[in-house]
Every structure is written in C-alpha cells, then in structure tokens.
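Second attempt. The first submission of Alanine--tRNA ligase had a stray character pasted in from the spreadsheet, which I only caught after the job came back as garbage. Lesson logged: always re-copy from the clean sequence file. Corrected sequence (245 aa) follows.
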Amino acid sequence: MPVNALYRDDFYLSTCEAVVTAVHEDGGIELDQTCFYATSGGQPGDTGQLERADGSKIALSQTKHGPSKDIIIHVPLENEPRPAVGETLVLHVDWPRRYRLMRMHTACHLLSVVCSYPITGAAVGEEESRVDFDMAETIDKDEVTTKLMELVEQNHPVYLQWITDEELTANPDIVKSKNVRPPLGLGRVSLVCIGENSSIDSQPCGGTHVSETQEVGRIHIAKIEKKGKENRRFRIRFGTPGDEA
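This time the job returned cleanly.
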C-alpha cells in the first residue's frame, strides 16, 4: 500500500512511529509511514533500526522502493526477527550516515552550479561522490574547489518548492540530468532551491539535503577523469586534498 514518506517534507526527521502494513517472504517490511529514505537518484537508502515495544531492535541493511515509488521496503539484516502486521514500531535512522549523505548530495548540486553542463550520471556516497558531465574541455580541479567553497561559505539557504507533474512537463529545461528524468506519477515533484528566491540554483530532485550550504563543510574535487570524448567525471570528497575528513 502507498506509504507516507515523511522524509520528503522533513530531511532532518530521524525517528518516527509507524505501523507494519506488510512483511514479505524475503523479510522486507512495509510501513504506513517512514522517515527512511529509499535508494533513488544516485543516493543510497537509509540504514538504521526498527525498535519494538519490548525494546528489542530489528537492524536494517537497506531501504529501497518496491515496484513503484509509493512503496518503500525496509530490508532487515540476515537472521533479524520479523515483526507482525499491525505491530507498532519506532524507527531510528542511522543519523551520522544520513547526514553525511545529505551534505554530499548538496555538494553535488553546488558542483552542478560551478560546472553548468548537462549531467550524464551521479552517485552519492558517504566518503566520495561522483558527478559526470557532458563536456569536452579540460578544467582545473583546484579552481573548481575554490568556487565550490565560495558557495559553501556564503551560506546560502537550501529549501524545497513543490511543482505539479504538469508544471515539470511544461518546463523541461529545469532538468539538468541528460539521461535520468525526475519521477512522475506521484502528482508533485520537489525542486531543490539554493539561494534566496532560487538565485543560485533550482532543479528537480527527490534526495535529501542540508538546509544551508555552510553545513556541507569543507569539500574538494579529488580527481577529474576523462570518461569518453565528451564526458568528464568529477570526484568530490570531504576535507582538503590529502586530509580527508
């Protein structure tokens, strides 16, 4: 059944109460609502624990979508106990991991501002993220790092605006990704906006992000790789070169 994905409206919600609506044969758990982000758009799904009434916990290995985006499946580690349908659980997201992913995902958006080329691929990670651009020219990674850190230190607000599926279809140019289209069918699409009145950036994205660019912290471009005649892969890491944090 469709789930109320609470993280779509509150990226900082790390715990909530939920009722089990289904338990799959492979152990996957569906809930009536969740604060766990499901793998999508290059960002890994959340891990964490589901706490039962007796205080025992079910550890999760991943969170993923089912056959459609309105189904979210919480996948326990092997040999974890199974809850009963109708059971009430308290959800606890692994917050340090999620927050690093939020910082990284926001950094990827900032990179797309500094490098305003069509995006051909991306993957968000805890220690390193990558963004691929459709570009042929070379560019200095230290110069990109300097521009990224300027945006971070200017501490621009990061926030969501919602538009309808129809509004997105009517304005296709707001999509930066060349190969992946934002998911339609839920009735609305979230725009991640950076800067007052979207002065820095605005693009459709269903991932989780920090609320101001300063939270990203120190980042740098560790490497720029040539992945074809007109494709460059940028690798973002936390910290400064030679001093990852």
